[in-house]
Specification:
- The structure is a single chain.
- With 214 residues, this protein is an alpha+beta fold.
- Helices cover 24% and strands 20% of the residues.
- It has a three-stranded antiparallel β-sheet, with no helix packed on it.
- Strand 1 and strand 2 form a beta hairpin.
- The longest helix is centred in the middle third of the chain and has 19 residues.
- The protein is globular.
Length: 214
């Protein structure tokens, strides 16, 4: 049994059944794009096998990187995981190798191992593994946000996000949209609790200047 799809009202199963739900918690991993299965090159667990320079063996000047590539980390002996820190550095390495190929220079392999992993698990709470050290709580959450902020493009974007996060530390959440749920009558005639999502006509939008007008 597998999940075939999900909407804002239900979860669709592979046998055609539907489960009514407004909440979806996703715990599965990612999968390789099915397009790769039709490529005539060496594969490992659905990924394209690379040489140390990200070039596909038997296919000169053809490179693969990121989630679709299977490349062994020279330090750990394991495959490079599909987390963002690896593809970002892989892209820079491939760019240098492409320039080296045009200029007739020697290519260089990537030398990078996972620095750590960060995740937020709730309001101002996170978990982290940095350089083999596990910790959790506010410090892990703060570090996750700091790394995320550093990777945002443009200084203007960084400042806007940093200001919003700073205000969030001292003030309550600001409502930007409110759903008014319709009630269904219960068998006894009293209004019961709605099991459906609101229609478009029932949606009320509140913007930042609503408080100013009020």
């Amino acid at each position: 049994m597998q999940i075939r799809g999900a909407t804002d009202q239900c979860i669709e199963l592979s046998d055609g059944r539907r489960i009514d739900s407004n909440t979806l918690i996703w715990t599965a991993g990612n999968s390789i794009h099915p397009l790769l299965a039709d490529l005539p090159c060496s594969m490992e667990r659905g990924r394209i096998v690379d040489d140390p320079f990200f070039e596909i063996p038997g296919w000169k000047d053809v490179y693969a990187l990121g989630d679709c590539a299977s490349l062994v980390d020279s330090e750990s002996g394991k495959l490079h995981p599909p987390t963002a820190q690896h593809p970002v550095r892989e892209g820079k390495t491939v760019a240098r190798n492409l320039a080296a190929a045009f200029d007739g220079r020697a290519k260089r392999p990537i030398r990078f191992s996972t620095l750590g992993q960060l995740a937020t698990v709730g309001r101002r709470t996170g978990v982290a593994n940095v350089l083999g050290i596990n910790f959790s709580g506010f410090i892990a959450w703060w570090l996750w946000r700091t790394v995320y902020l550093m990777k945002l493009p443009r200084l203007e974007k960084k400042i806007r996000v940093a200001l919003g996060w700073t205000l969030d530390l001292d003030f309550t959440k600001h409502i930007i949209r409110h759903h008014r749920l319709a009630s269904h009558p219960s068998p006894g005639g009293a209004a019961g609790r709605s099991d459906s999502l609101p229609e478009n006509g029932d949606r009320l939008a509140a913007t930042a200047d609503a408080a100013h007008r009020g």
